[in-house]
Amino acid sequence: MTTQIRRIGVTRRWSDAVLYGGTAYFVEVADDPAQSIRGQVAQVLQQIDDRLKVVGSDRTRLLHVQIFLADLADGPHLNELWDAWVPEGHAPARACVQAGLAPGYLVEMVITAALTNPLTE
Fold it and tell me: DSSP per residue over 3-60, as a string?
């Protein structure tokens, strides 16, 4: 049996999500970068929820989240919102690093999540 690759929202430069076998891969940045760090983190977490729904997953199936912050001093704001968002007992592997992001963007998250129904051909 071969595993198919499914791409959602394909552009020349990226896809909104890539599904392979039982796993979804995607990246989220705030739709409105004019917001504060709290506003951007809240937007990104909501966007992750929305994307998980589209690909057939949910927060309890998060495997790994890599978080890029423009300023690590914003970590406490991130962690407060993150801790309220992640379901108890379902925290993914997580890394948080400081990175130079596009102007105005304060947070970017790279997500790997298990799908409820794995893809096969």
Answer: PPEEEES--SS--SEEEETTEEEEEEE-S-TTS-HHHHHHHHHHHHHHHHHHHT--GG
What confidence tens digit (pLDDT) does each residue in 16-60 have?
999 998 999 999 999 999 999 999 999 999 999 999 999 999 999
Phi/psi of residue 72, nearest 5 degrees: -65, -15
Please state which CATH class domain 25-114 belongs to. alpha beta
Mean pLDDT of the chain: 94
Which residues are CB-contacts of 57 (< 8 A; sequence separation ≥ 6)? 24, 113, 114, 115, 116
At position 48, the amino acid (one-letter code) is I
Q: What residues does each domain of the chain span?
A: 25-114
Task: Tell me the mean pLDDT in the region 73-94.
Answer: 98
